[in-house]
Design goal:
Layout: E1 3-8, H1 19-28, E2 31-36, H2 44-53, E3 57-61, H3 68-71, H4 76-85, E4 90-99, H5 106-123, E5 127-132, H6 135-149, E6 154-156, H7 163-171, E7 175-178, H8 188-196, E8 202-204, H9 226-237, H10 241-256
Parallel strand pairs: 1-2, 2-3, 3-4, 4-5, 5-6, 6-7, 7-8
Helix pairs in contact: 4-5, 9-10
């Protein structure tokens, strides 16, 4: 069985003491590809070095909405564009988006997000979208962008919206990615969303080191735990785990343009 964790942050300090062991565990459970998200462009060299170290790792470049206020400048668009063009292992722009849970700089976030959408469109790359307490303004912004500039492909990462909100983004052509939150017993609306997403639009992720899934909840999350996300989504959808793993692997390779994993090289 092969799995793809479509959203990791293994550059964070919490992984540095035992990263080789973390990699051994993800390989042992069949995680054959990982997509490393980017919180801010200054992370790029470290993420590049991790991809040198772990050839199954591909990555994005972008600026997280919660960092826009301090770190978005007049030079940011050119910087992200240049970095995205500098390495063939860049498979997405992001993570970018809107977060109105922890910040209120609405117009700044919108401007930075639209600029990154334009980069993704220019380079024919998907976007990794962070959307927290912002589903309705996000949908409005994307529809307006689509009307003015044309569509962009991408994924709503670590999705936590209602079924109605989920449908908004499916209608815009996005894939929907579920993280460890889908395993939380009380996350009813996430369970419902995971049941309604068409099989060819479904992705799985850890968003590690955050949001470890049941039965690892409360611990540092890591890519090997994407197996628990996959198992729970398969259970919710009433399909075999192996079928869900194969489908989400195919979906991730299609969206991000990843080389298909070698079946012999994958664990499990």
């Amino acid at each position: 069985m092969q799995l793809i964790d479509t959203h990791v942050h293994i550059n964070f300090d919490s992984f540095q003491p035992d990263l080789d062991a973390v990699a051994s565990r993800w390989r042992s459970v069949g995680v054959a590809r990982l997509v490393h998200s980017c919180v801010e462009p200054s992370e790029f060299p470290v993420i590049q070095s991790l991809a040198d170290r772990f050839p199954e790792l591909f990555f994005a470049v972008g600026l997280h909405p919660l960092d826009v206020e301090e770190k978005w400048t007049g030079a940011s668009t050119a910087e992200i564009l240049a970095l995205a063009q500098s390495d063939r292992r860049v498979v997405a722009i992001g993570e970018t988006g809107l977060d109105f849970f922890k910040a209120s700089n609405v117009e700044q976030q919108r401007a930075a997000f639209e600029a990154q959408l334009k980069i993704a469109q220019q380079l024919h790359l998907p976007v990794i979208i962070h959307c927290r307490e912002a589903a309705e303004p996000m949908a409005v912004l994307l529809k307006s962008f689509w009307n003015q500039h044309g569509a962009v492909s991408g994924v709503m990462h670590c999705w936590g919206g209602t079924p109605e909100e989920t449908q908004w983004f499916l209608d815009l052509g996005f894939l929907i990615s579920f993280s460890g939150t889908v395993t939380f017993p009380k996350a009813t609306q996430i369970h419902q969303a995971a049941q309604m997403v068409p099989s060819d639009r479904l992705l799985i992720e850890t968003d590690c080191p955050f949001l470890a899934p049941v039965p690892q909840r409360g611990k540092r999350n890591e890519p090997a735990y994407v197996q628990h996300v996959a198992a729970h989504v398969a259970q919710l959808r009433g399909v075999p785990l192996e079928a869900l793993a194969a489908q989400t692997t195919q979906n991730a390779c299609r969206l991000f343009g990843l080389p298909l994993p070698d079946p012999v090289a994958a664990g499990g």
